[in-house]
Design a protein that fits this description.
This protein has 662 residues and is mainly α. The protein contains 21 helices and two strands. Strands 1-2 form a two-stranded antiparallel ribbon. 56% of the residues are buried.
Length: 662
Amino acid sequence: MASSTVQVNNRDARLELTWRGLILGAAITLVFTAANVYLGLKVGLTFASSIPAAVISMAVLRILFKNATIWENNIVQTIASAAGTLSAIIFVLPGLVMVGWWSGFPYWESLAVIAIGGILGVMYSVPLRRALVAQSDLPYPEGVAAAEVLKVGVGGSDASAASIDENKKGLLAISIGALASAGYAALAAARVFADTISGYFRIGGAATGFGMSMSLALVGAGHLIGISVGLAIAAGLVISWGILTPLLTALHPAEGPAGAVALGVWAHQVRFIGTGTIGIAALWTIGKLFKPVYSGVASAIAASRRRAEAGGDDSALPRTERDLPIGIVALISVACFIPLAFLLAIFLQGSEVASLTLPLVIAGLIYVVVAGFFVAAACGYMAGLIGSSNSPVSGLAILSVIGAALLLLVVAKTAGAMGAPALVAYALFVTAVLLSVATISNDNLQDLKTGQLVDATPWRQQVALIAGVIFGALVIPPILDLLNKAYGFGAAPHALPAPQATLISTLAKGVIQGQIDWGLIGVGVLIGVAIIIIDEVLRATTKFQLPPLAVGLGIYLPATTTSATVVGAVAGWAYNRWVAKGPNADVARRIGVLIASGLIVGESLFGVLLAGIIVFTGNAAPLAVVGDAFQRYATWLGGIVFVFTIIALYRWSARLAQRAAC
């Protein structure tokens, strides 16, 4: 935007945390959470709902209320995104059904797991906000995109002519980007365009290949994360598909199509190597974060002291420093641990390890408290680095369930083999709480970055985050139960595959029963150590860097997802260099960000709509208008239009900036 200051033209300029915003946020929550739960169980991925929620909020509040403000819209998207991100509980909780411990999802137990973990995640995000948002230069691509969406929706008669002109052009840029990505996604859903391009081949006994999702939303995300992170992800792709996959397939030759062999080795071996890389990179990152996190906690305590010295008057602090008081944060955290202890104890009653309830509950609590903070910090950092949609929460869930299983195995070593099923279930249950903490931190810091950019009040957002957690906890269990009754989970015909829950349940069993391949994770750790050393040398001697977590992502996440993000990063870098040579370069760069934001908005909104149609019709491809015979043409047609759309949007963006008012 032409100015970072948000201009508002009404006497209610500081309307922020309102009842109408809470109600609208709750309504949006129901739709987005249901869509996320279904799609996550179907394909193992969820989408961030911040931007679509912001767009819907601005449309609804503008129609119904003349005095709606940017901060009120920010609260709505905060509530909706907090609830939507809790849908990641599907990566673990269905495992309790899959291992036979639950037959369904008991409402109050499921609600408590989600709510307690989510509220703890909000509490952890208070000091982390200061460390990772206020005192950090992390890009937060989705947080920035959401802020830009909110800004272009605000008008004001006291703004300059240039600012008003750029606001109009910015809104047009978001709209055009959204229409382009939604239109492409619709044609892909109709199967007129292919949504993925891939090719696999053999070289002797080795098999490898490449795939890319033709997703304009992922291209937009790549533009926002920047070239450094994009190239690091590309390095991970090279390691994964250029080295590890062909090497492992050559060492253990298998019959069958090259694609099936290569994807099988990646899913069952290379991805575990990526888990090790992410794990060591996360530990290294957490170690490096110790000082800023400590500073964040100290800053929160100092802010609380200044508030107390002023008689509890918030005006003693700048608005952007008004977090929930650290004393209240500590009190709420302790208040969460008490019902959590009872919840863990109730879960163990009647099991083979019921006699070990006290030590197992203590171990579970310590693990959630200590590991929860570390995982929250790692998730928050990764969300700031590459966005919450692309952050490998499931990768940290894998590390978390391994850690939980190992800890509980040590504590319960006297239980014997008869206690194994109960320990597996308990490890999943503890990990579910931990994952709620992690996912909320993964998303919350994006929301708080958005708030920082639009001059919102942190404590009001943190209250809204708690409200979002509660709304999400209320609706997720019945949705899970409904889907379980309608489809079931696992490999049965017509069942929802729940890929992440299947993998995490398998890992819990493997650790408890001694069947996990630690060698693969160890290889990933060694790769991660090498990347960390290279990154530190680059940072010390050059202006370049190789973020280890981003490299780990390139190994761990599907190539179809990460490769499109790399394309977006390179395209955004090329666009910025190109417009730097022309007039209004700064305006052109900002409009480029808005185009990228629009790409995310359009496809996200269409994804919600398509999910609703899928659930309503029970048809996995309800919009398909052509059959399998057309797919050879759909690949070429989709690829050509995909490339043309990206080039055309960037050229149009540059021309739009050239016509901006001076």
